[in-house]
Amino acid sequence: MPGSSQVFVGGIVAYTLESKRNVLGVSPQTLEHHGAVSEETAKEMAAAPRRVCGADVAVSTTGIAGPDGGTKENPVGTVYVGFAADGLCVARRYSLWGTRDWIRLLASANRAGLGPPPRAR
């Protein structure tokens, strides 16, 4: 979109534990004690673009879209969305449902709980 560089600094995709540590600076202790899918990790991930890119506000997502990888504590569909701004760093947990694609769509749109997943064809 023309002019977006005047308001959008950039984005960082940190999919692996290594990139969460090395690129975003998520503390190894946070990852070890709370895991990659946690409120604490989402907060540290959201704080990073403010530090790394000089952004005024930043958001993050971390979760398990499936079909595998879920645990009792964090079943498939668990997503944390983090938000960081001047003096504020928060995260919220969402329990989403449906296919991997539907979970990813809901997480990226932050539309948790708004309507059923599409029917399988």
Structural write-up:
31% of the residues lie in helices and 18% in strands. It is α+β, with helices and mostly antiparallel strands and 121 residues long. A hairpin with a 2-residue loop joins strand 2 (78-85) and strand 3. The model is unreliable at 111-118 (pLDDT under 50). The longest helix is centred in the middle third of the chain and has 15 residues, at 39-53. The protein has a 3-stranded antiparallel beta sheet, covered by helices on one side.
In spatial order, strands of the major sheet run 1-2-3
Assembly form of the protein:
single chain
| Strands, count | 3
Percent of residues in β-strands: 15-25%
| Shape descriptor | globular
The SS-based structural class is: alpha+beta
The SSE string, one letter per element, is: HHHEEEH
- The end-to-end span amounts to 34 Å
Low-confidence stretches: 111-118
Average pLDDT confidence is 89
- Radius of gyration (Å): 15 Å
Given the structure, what is the number of helices? 4
Helix content: 25-40%
User: How would a textbook summarize the main sheet?
Assistant: 3 strands, antiparallel
Write the layout of secondary structure elements.
Blueprint: H1 17-22, H2 28-34, H3 39-53, E1 58-63, E2 78-85, E3 88-95, H4 100-109
Antiparallel strand pairs: 1-2, 2-3
Brief sketch in words of this structure:
This protein is of the alpha+beta class.
Tags for this model:
3 strands, globular, 4 helices, alpha+beta, single chain, 18% strand, 121 residues, three-stranded antiparallel sheet
